[in-house]
Amino acid sequence: MFRPALVLAAVAVSGPALADCAPFTLTSDSSTRKVRHVDAGQGGLGDLRIGSRLVQLDGKPKGEKHWVGMVLGSGDDAPALFNRVWRLDDGEIHARQMVGIVSEPSDTSRPSIGDGGAVIIGGSGDYQGATGNVTVDLEGTSVTYIFDINCD
């Protein structure tokens, strides 16, 4: 019998703050969004939502955003835990977010990040030791990610 399990790992990385680790904004439109649904066969519980999209800084390519979300319940308002990674040309930013799925888990046509944003839990490269928050502005087919980030 399949029993969904949630395994969380935290890695602490210390190091000097980097000059490039300061608040910034990335944008993306839906033309590069790719999402798939993995059905765990438990009425939503344990289902995964996996995706990626390209992101830009000042209209120029900066990297990709990737995510994996696991549905932690069943029903229309089931919570889901998302791990989000922005793989940028100068490092990675890792964030985690708990959201209520706004549609059936298999409906991949709608974004799942929600307005509450995500908590930054670390990074690499220029974002080593990153903390802070990412808030999201969804408008039409565009998404704006606002990074309130610090690498002290």
Question: How does this structure look, described?
Answer:
The protein has 152 residues and is an all-beta fold. The protein has a single domain, classed as Allene oxide cyclase-like (AOC barrel-like, Beta Barrel). 0% of the residues lie in helices and 51% in strands. The chain contains no helices and nine strands.
Short description:
The protein is mainly β.
Secondary structure layout plus pairing:
Blueprint: E1 24-29, E2 34-38, E3 48-57, E4 60-71, E5 79-88, E6 91-100, E7 118-123, E8 131-139, E9 142-150
Antiparallel strand pairs: 1-9, 2-3, 3-4, 4-5, 5-6, 6-7, 7-8, 8-9
Structural class: mainly beta
Radius of gyration: 16 Å
Note the overall shape: globular
- Structural domain tally: 1
Name the features.
152 residues; mainly beta; AOC barrel-like
